[in-house]
Amino acid sequence: MQNVLRAILALSLGAAVAPTAVTAQNSSTELDAKVQSFLERRRGTWRDLNVPESDGKLLHDLIVKHKFTRALEIGTSTGHSGVWIAWALAKTGGRLITVEIDPQRHRAAVANFKEAGVAAYIDARLGDAHEVVPALSGPFDFVFSDADKDWYKNYFVAAWPKMVSGGCFTAHNVSGRGVGAGIRDFLAHIKTLPDAVTTVDTSSRSGVSITCKRQD
């Protein structure tokens, strides 16, 4: 009799839990399809300071691999990198704060986030990152810097104390031709930090630096 009761209870619990799991899986699958369709439609059309597809995928994979959930993007442009980042955060249960100073680019990015289906995972802010970033309380486990290059070191200095152990600060356009004094100062600074490990991904011409805070 006890075995029969256990079997009934198991079936009852299964009936209660399974639909939720199936719903979540279906929702994730639907979002994946929507984002992939959006990115495919827009492939080759991203201009106006956006990252190339390879770098967007790099950011996405880094977030998913390390299960980052608290992300900051400095320099939204019209949202290509933000879509990749938010898509990854949808898989980890995270959220992105992204900051853009130009009203037209900000409006375009917000529209793109909605069309891609990732708007729910993004807090898109219009403002001057020079002021917004230092004022943010954090903590963050992922930062992507792609704004004014002369200010990269300042962004890093403002964000690094708010980075959790194991978190990564990434920066775009750090290699190749035309690297200016701001990038050189930024790269020189991060090499001096005892609590940081930096690598540079050069799979694109732009180059992405990845500086991760050592685990405590």
How would you describe this protein?
This protein has 216 residues and is α/β, with parallel strands linked by helices. The chain has a single domain (53-213), classed as 3-Layer(aba) Sandwich (Rossmann fold), CATH 3.40.50.150. Helix content is 50%, strand content 20%. The protein contains 7 helices and 7 strands; from the N terminus they run ααβαβαβαβαβαββ. It has helices spanning 2-42, 53-66, 80-92, 103-116, 129-135, 152-159, 181-190, and strands at 70-74, 95-100, 122-126, 140-145, 163-172, 196-201, 208-213. It has a 7-stranded mixed β-sheet, with helices on both faces. A hairpin with a 6-residue loop joins strand 6 (196-201) and strand 7 (208-213). Helix 1 runs antiparallel to helix 3 (80-92), helix 5 runs parallel beside helix 6 (152-159) and helix 6 runs parallel beside helix 7 (181-190). The radius of gyration is 20 Å and the shape is globular. Residues 4-18 have low confidence and may be disordered.
What class, by secondary structure content? alpha/beta
* Fourth-tier CATH superfamily name: Vaccinia Virus protein VP39
Low-confidence stretches: 4-18
How far is the first residue's CA from the last residue's CA?
Answer: 54 Å
What's the CATH C level? Alpha Beta
User: Rg from C-alpha positions?
Assistant: 20 Å
Helical content band:
40-55%
CATH architecture: 3-Layer(aba) Sandwich
- Mean model confidence by pLDDT: 89
Query: Biggest sheet, strands in spatial order?
Result: 3-2-1-4-5-7-6
Number of strands: 7
Q: How many strands, which pairing sense, and closed or not: the largest β-sheet?
A: 7 strands, mixed
Whole-number total of structural domains: 1
Q: Report the CATH topology name.
A: Rossmann fold
Beta-strand fraction estimate: 15-25%
The general outline is: globular
Tally of contiguous helical segments: 7
- Output the helix-strand order: HHEHEHEHEHEHEE
